[in-house]
Model the fold of this input.
Amino acid sequence: MLVLSRKQGESIVIDDSVEVTVVAIHEEEVSLRLSGSVGSDGGDTMCKRCDETITIRENIVVTVVCIRRRRDKCIVRLGIEAPLEIPVHRREVYEALKSGAPLRDPRKRRF
Done:
């Protein structure tokens, strides 16, 4: 399972065609919007609590791993289970890959 942290308004892109966006984060639940080719009309918004899942198509499962409050920021951790051949990216990484922009190696420090 790949686990990604997201704040309100941030997204995950799955298989270049499905986008999962964090619409709102509450104390015990998160509102998520699914858009793209998800097997329905798309644009569905749903509320999920920790450990609840969303199944996309037949082979992709998104789980709300936990909801955290750090200082004044809320963060949700989403777990994605998908076959290895299906790409999963944070929206900002997906856009950088599509534009051809060079990605910074997180292991290298900038001074």
Observations:
- The longest strand covers residues 60-70.
- Strands lie at 2-6, 11-14, 18-25, 29-36, 44-49, 53-56, 60-70, 73-81, 88-90.
